[in-house]
Amino acid sequence: MKLTATALVVGACLSLTACKETPNNVDNNAAVNSQSAVTPADAKKFIDGAEAQLLELIIEVSRADWVNANFITEDTSKISAVANEKYTNIIVKLANEAARYNGLDLDYDTARKLEKLKLALTLPAPQDAAKTAELSTIVSDLGGMYGKGKYCKADGKCLSLGDMSSTLSTSRDYDELLDVWQGWRTVSPQMKPLYQRQVELTNEGSTALGYADTGAMWRSKYDMPADDFTTELDRLWGQVKPLYNSLQCHVRARLGDKYGTDKVPQDRPIPAHLLGNMWAQSWGNIYDLVGPENADPGYDVTELLKEHKYDELTMVRGAEKFFTSLGFEPLPETFYERSLFTKPKDREVQCHASAWDLDTQDDLRIKMCIQRTGEEFSVIHHELGHNFYQRAYKGQPVSYQESANDGFHEAIGDTIALSVTPGYLKEIGLLDKVPDESKDIGLLLRMALDKVAFIPFGLLVDQWRWQVFSGEVKPEDYNKAWWELRTKYQGIEAPLTRTEANFDPGAKYHVPGNTPYTRYFLAHILQFQFHRELCKIAGNEEPVHRCSIYNSKKAGKALNEMLEMGSSRPWQEALAALTGSNKMDATAILDYFAPLQTWLDKQNEGRSCGW
Ligand code: X8Z
Ligand code: ZN
Fold it and tell me: How many helices (H) and strands (E) does the chain have?
């Protein structure tokens, strides 16, 4: 099954994170009350049959989606829409049938698999052939609009997202940044009516399955009552918020020095185009503007890659080597034959990076328009984390061929990338000399600009979608609500007037792509928990931010044991299997950045923080 960031109507298929208990917002009584007629043995037979049917369908849909994402045309979009339509029709039917077994005394696996079946679709469709077809077409059209999106200027020259992202990361010219920032957002206004209709259709599908709306359904995938999950998110964000606010304050002050406090007022949110990233979601690219003067680590991975003549393939091989150093088997040759590593010149592709498992066995691939930067080197580790996870759980029944929860899938490659330390870079010959400890603040700041800065963004994307699905935010307020959340959580604001003629959420891949986003928030918490634990297992004695688990077979074995579980048990058990704790916990990230917090507090003395 694929695990991609691409359009997942199909979601990660059986990416069901079932609970033993029924989600609290599902009305069991609404199910067909024919329990007298069915037995636990019927339930088991039903789910076995469903699994066999799904396995076949998943492969068919994955192939159609792979071809479409690698070669976006009218025809491939149609082929993908038709495959997804068929898949959705069947799952919706099976999910509704699964409700027949509600209330029976079932064995653990049958109950868990039935629950996963009900939660399988990211966008459930109504039980109506015409509406399912309409929804599948919208999904495929939205994906295509994003993938083909370009900003064409008056002189006829068109820029791709990759081109504009490069400008955003390297330019320090306020107006040039503004131009590409608004330019990319010209791709999304035309998505709005489609998106609006998609919300109506999928909500109809979710309510038929017993959920209040599609957002409520998404929140039910975490082995706990949906409301408790929301409380968990608030708790985790509450833990990280003080560190984020300190970082935001420091960055705003330095941007004020660079661009002038008329452009970056010190009592207002930061203009969103100055943070080195198209969505202001990670800020590592402006390290040069905000870094400490006397503690700069003195190297930059982009430069090291260039000096050592790394190309796209060498970068992938390098990332793979990290995994094999932990004891994982090398990727199959077909991975190198079938993956896409560079942006083709002659066709439209969905460049947003994704990892795929085409046959639920060993046909692993990534699809990525790799740029030769340190940032992209991390993304390659991220993607391979998906592939090694997929391979680790392939022995599970198809219902459990997923991560413990979706945050785990997103966290594995990032956990490995946390081990890309100066010590590791020296070991693989990219760096001559490891900077001494006095340079740690620079390293930590650079990491925080990517990881800590991301966290509120990771949270708000689905806060927006959940409000949209529930109807709390209506189409006439889509954009306004988006920017309210951006300001509330991130302390940033649009650099230009925005209206409802704009549809800025649509300019972020996962919105037209229908990939839930809370997973990345969770991943940013979890990866520090995993890293802390794996470092202990590897016998690391250095501060955790200097630890690399490279070559540790012991750490690799412990990691693999968790990955192999797939989603066969509640995620709390998988977490406990590795860390000994069944709770997600942001103290790991706070501990990692503790020296930076002290440094930021000092920098921020005398500054007035907040927005
Ligand atoms: O979409 C991704 C991955 C693919 S699952 C490249 N990420 C999020 C994003 O780019 O917005 C990784 C971090 C957050
Ligand atoms: Zn990912």
Answer: 23, 6
- Separation of CA 434 and ligand 1 centre (Å): 29
| 588-599 per-position pLDDT tens digit | 999 999 999 999
| E-state strands within 284-349 | none
| Residues 6+ positions from 163 with CB-CB distance below 8 Å | none
Ligand in closest contact with the CA of 378: 1
pLDDT for 354-411, tens place per residue? 999 999 999 999 999 999 999 999 999 999 999 999 999 999 999 999 999 999 999 9
- Which residue CA neighbors atom 14 of ligand 1 most closely? 520
Q: Which two tokens stand for residue 218?
A: 């998404």
Burial of residue 438 (number of CB atoms within 10 Å: 0-12, 13-18, 19+): exposed
CA dihedral sign of residues 514, 515, 517, 518:
positive
Residues forming a β-bridge with 356: 365
The SS3 assignment for 586 reads coil
What is the DSSP code string of 156-221? S-EE-HHHHHHHHHH---HHHHHHHHHHHGGGSGGGHHHHHHHHHHHHHHHHHTT-SSHHHHHHT-
Closest residue to atom 6 of ligand 1, CA basis: 353
From ligand 1's centre to the CA of 507, what distance in Å?
14
Summarised one tens digit per residue, pLDDT across range 451-498 is 999 999 999 999 999 999 999 999 999 999 999 999 999 999 999 999
Nearest CA, atom 13, ligand 1: 520
Q: Is 353 a catalytic residue?
A: yes
In the set 386, 409, 524, 531, the catalytic residue is: 386
If one residue of 379, 409, 449, 511 were mutated to test the ligand 1 pocket, choosing by the most ligand atoms within 8 A of its CB, it would be 379
Sorted by where each begins, the domain ranges of the chain are: 5-134, 140-197+224-296+444-516, 301-435+519-603
Around Cβ 394, how many Cβ atoms within 10 Å?
18
Q: Which atom of ligand 1 is nearest to the CA of 352?
A: 6
Ligand 1 site residues (CB inside 6 A) read 5, 281, 353-354, 379, 382, 520
250 catalytic per annotation = no
